[in-house]
Amino acid sequence: MDHNRKLYIETVGCQMNMLDSELVVAALRRHGYELTSDVQEADTVLFNTCSVREHAEHKIYSQLGRLKYSKRRRPKQVIGVLGCMAQKDQELIFQRAPHVDLVVGTGQLSEVPRMIDEARAGSRRAVAVSLSRKEGTRSEVSESFQSYDPLREPAMRPSPFQAFVRIMIGCDKFCTYCVVPMTRGPEQSRPPADIAAEVRVLAEQGVKEITLLGQTVNSYKYTENGSLVRLSELLARIHDTPGIDRIKFVTNYPRDMTDDLLFAVRDLPKVGRYLHVPAQSGSNDVLKIMKRGYTVEQYLEMHDRIREVMRDCAVSSDFIVGHPGETEAEFEKSIDLVRRCRFKNSFIFKYSPRPGTKAFDNYPDDIPEDVKRRRNNVLLDIQNAISEEDNASFIGREVEVLVEGPSKSSRKADEEPSANGPIQLVGRTPCDRIVVFDGNPRLAGTLTNVAVFDCTQTTLIGSIVTREVQHGSGSLLPILA
Ligand code: SAH
Ligand code: SF4
Ligand code: F3S
Question: Which of 12, 16, 60, 217 to probe ligand 3 with, by most ligand atoms within 8 A of CB?
Fold first, then answer.
């Protein structure tokens, strides 16, 4: 076993990757590693990578480029590329960055500690990846992606009170533009009992908010003793875990937004009324080329159903602009959809051609960069205006906030936190809106009522509601300050 090794890890991509990094760090801590934020000081440098857009890969390759020189000075430094780019590019990574020692795919992360030891002992350039989707039967490929989630590492979480729990891996939807079915393999759901046990352990560690993760999380299905457990049932099973105050789940696939799930969200008080259901485009022709599997009319039907079941449920979306062949008229249909659905927020991406996908093979990336950029900005401006109007409707209302801790600005302003004075805190409502307010940092991890008095496009601004209680003498004392 190594002692006092220093690990630098950088993570990009989605929440799945954040969770994967948490598990890798937990395993390495057991092998005597400590985290460092200084890459120069590290004897092991890991990048947990994302391939969903070219830009994410570029950033990693340029970081790797910079490390070439530090490796010359520190030949013992072990450099590893983990995750989606490792699975997608495999040996190609050594060609582009010859000083990399390890390439480890999403399904082999449990092998990282052993592979680092071997690299340090002198064997160079190890690759561990899963089978590609055509290299075996479905069950062989599935098995090669299977990873398990045994170890947790609190220091790597968004906050000590929030944790991700994987309920499924992979994706079988094969949208034509997307690499995820390649990098994460076939869709596989975890047994409900394992998930419930993990939630209990996290609750015992002080976690208050659980976010269930899956690429298409509402496609979750697991057959147990002959009967099918779906996401609605899973939510019900973990709902009463002592200590857990809130449950969220991302990302939803429009076609699998069934009524049983909407009723579960409505009826289970700890489940946030927030659904991230990417539409991707407002044009039927574009949706068809994307092979998203639904029409705009079906998306709207789903959206209306959400509204019927829960008027106050926040819905957010993703859009891709500048998909091959997207005309101005087709782009404008995405604007129409944003206006019609009034999403809480939308993540908007410029189409990025990904080698290995159907779109890459079949459609030239024919929308010029400046057109993509303009469409991105136009759609974002319209969405942001809607988000601000929506946030403004909260002014004068009281919201329940799970306090996460000091806000970004107070963390910056106050490098050395002074004793216990009030500072700006940040948290979220059950419908996933960000709220900032002044308060005592000790409130982190609690549910607190906040009265909203102002807002921006992204944030509600408020002050803590201090309930006044009658004391024996008749004086009024605030109980929450
Ligand atoms: N599983 C999720 C999304 C995973 S990727 C889902 O299906 O909704 C996150 C987002 O990245 C997608 O929703 C999509 O909007 C965007 N995206 C995926 N591939 C892309 C590509 N090739 N170019 C640009 N954006 C892409
Ligand atoms: Fe990619 Fe589509 Fe699967 Fe989402 S549903 S991960 S966009 S293939
Ligand atoms: Fe990126 Fe892989 Fe997530 S490609 S978005 S890190 S599943």
Answer: 16
**Structural contact between residues 386 and 343, judged by C-beta atoms closer than 8 angstroms:** yes
Q: Note the pTM of the prediction, 2 decimals.
A: 0.93
d(C-alpha 147, C-alpha 161), whole Å: 25
End-to-end CA distance of the chain: give it in Å, rounded: 48
Distance 51 CA to ligand 3 centre (A): 6
SS3 content of the chain, % helix, strand, coil (to 5): 40, 25, 35
Distances (CA, A) of 25 to 103, 112, 183, 397: 16, 10, 21, 41
Q: How far lies 37's CA from each of 34, 41, 43, 45, 47, in Å?
A: 10, 8, 12, 10, 13
User: In whole angstroms, what is the distance from residue 12 CA to residue 51 CA?
Assistant: 10
Distance from the alpha carbon of residue 295 to the mean position of ligand 1, in angstroms: 17
340-342-347-352 Cα dihedral, nearest 10 degrees: 10
CA distances from 77 to 63, 72, 216 (A): 15, 9, 38
Q: What is the DSSP letter of 311?
A: T
Q: How many angstroms is it from 178 CA to the middle of ligand 1?
A: 6
User: 58 near 91, Cβ under 8 Å?
Assistant: no
Report whether residue 283 contacts ligand 1, using a CB cutoff of 6 Å.
Answer: no
Give the ligand whose atoms come closest to the C-alpha of residue 87. Answer: 3
What is the distance in A from the centroid of ligand 1 to the CA of 82? 20
Q: Is 84 in the pocket of ligand 3 (CB under 6 A)?
A: yes
Could you give the CA distance from residue 376 to residue 204 in angstroms, rounded to a whole number? Answer: 43
* 406-430 tens-digit pLDDT: 998 887 765 555 556 789 999 999 9
| Cβ 402 vs Cβ 428: under 8 Å | yes
Render pLDDT for 276-321 as a digit per residue (tens, 0 to 9): 999 999 999 999 999 999 999 999 999 999 999 999 999 999 999 9
Q: What is the pLDDT of residue 149?
A: 72
CB distance 448 to ligand 1 below 6 Å: no
Amino acid at 165: V
Residue nearest to atom 4 of ligand 2 (CA): 215
**Which has the closest alpha carbon to 169: 128, 207, 130, 111?**
130
For range 369-386, the mean pLDDT: 98
Residues with CB under 6 A from ligand 2: 171, 173-175, 178, 180-181, 215-216, 253
Residue in 156, 163, 183, 159 with CA at minimum distance from that of residue 7: 156
